[in-house]
Amino acid sequence: MICGFLVSLYCGRFVYFVL
């Protein structure tokens, strides 16, 4: 998974939601 600095929060939230 490629997550940037700003996308880090968004990606983390997305992964948490999917989990």
Automatic annotation (TrEMBL):
Domain of life: Eukaryota
Record-given protein name: Uncharacterized protein
Protein's organism: Rhizophora mucronata (Asiatic mangrove)
